[in-house]
Amino acid sequence: MRKLFITLAATLVLAAPSAGAQLRAPVAVRPDAMMSALTAEVMAVLGKEAGPARASELAQLVESRIVPVFDFHRMARLALARNWRAASAEQQDVLAAQFKTLLVRTYSQALLEYRDQPIDYKPLRAAAGDTDVTVRSTMRRPGVEPLTIDYDMTDGLAGWQVYDVKIAGVSLVLAYRESFAATVRASGIDGLIKLLEDKNLRNDTGAGAAGAAKLAPVLMIYGGPRAARP
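and the corresponding structure tokens:
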């Protein structure tokens, strides 16, 4: 009996560090809860008075919270389809970076336009162990049908990440596929890179009416144009 007790005690001692590590391990965050919290953070910043302070805070929030949650490399690959394989590794990195700039602006500008509308996240419909899910949400708008905003997400080494956003069933990533293919046919991969660089540069320097005009295609996806607000 004494020998059995010693063996049991030794086993518990050896197991203690592992058990402690499990107790200290962070609880996995559900993707729907993660996106709900992220949207709330962005909306809180967008609800502040327009000005340099809000712009600076939004830029920091984008880099620290939005960028890590979106897989822009995969998004660019999906948007380019078979043309992705025609690009060199260096060109792929540049395309992903430029596409990131374009999509982050589209996403934040769309949320800015609808910052006063509540967004409800639906309970996640996924089985235990699923690594590819769709997080569904609806934006309630007075006088019109709720707008669906769905995030296709996958769980990988970087945790849960978004690889597509569907607005009213329309993929923001795949919406670029046809125009990207046409540009590659006409001007090659370098031509597409130049197109994205020029577009992002114009977005950075544009303001006022020009900014509202650039947002118009996004608003068409989101349910129709509305008057621009600060």
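(Above: one complete record from the training split.) The domain at 3-221 is CATH 3.10.450.710 (Nuclear Transport Factor 2; Chain: A,).
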